[in-house]
Amino acid sequence: MKQALIVQGGWDGHEPVQVSEVFVNILRGEGFSVEISDTLDAFLDVEKLKKLHIIVPVWTMGKITREQVQPVIEAVASGVGIAGCHGGMCDSFRDSVEWQFMTGGQWVSHPGGDGVEYIVNIKKYSSPIVEGLEDFIVKSEHYYLHIDPAIEVLATTRFPAVKWYHSSNGHVDMPVVWTKRWGHGRVFYNSLGHHADVFDNPVALEFMKRGLLWAAQGKDIALENNLNADVFKSEDKMF
User: Of 59, 127, 164, 214, which sits with the fewest C-beta atoms within 10 Å of its C-beta?
Assistant: First the structure.
């Protein structure tokens, strides 16, 4: 049976327990065995992490130690998927550049706060993940992120929706959903999810489901091809 680890916690305003329940329902519905942890110490055992198909962080504005983050970095590089949403993955650990490098972005602002209505524009043909999905409207936080130029963008939203200092730059199409690679591992991020009810929208829920499954598939590919993350290792200083 495929194994998933959900690590939930951090700022309660992002409803980590409720968002985790959405992910648990998706993964168990697809036949995964799901472990839920309330501590970042769940990341300490690198060999246990490497046996997983996917890691799902649901943790906002916390602090992570080097001892906790390094096993995740190595496990994902070995082929374990990592997927998450909103601040639960890309505003998890503001002082961990290693985490940000792996996940592909970091939240910096949500002009207008909660309750901004905006369109999520699907990038047609960008990935099998988006096949058949149509643009949709959400009313939530409008996430402005600093992003890795290596990400593969699957959906965008247009800024500014709310006037502020950034408005002087004109229109900007900000990634909402993306994928990227980390070693042999697959990374999926969706900036939706300020509250769990954003996934009451069937398109948003389907998008998240497809992303979780896509990220997890990388593990089987790594196993089938006997891939080893050692090919990416270097003795040069990275951080």
Answer: 164
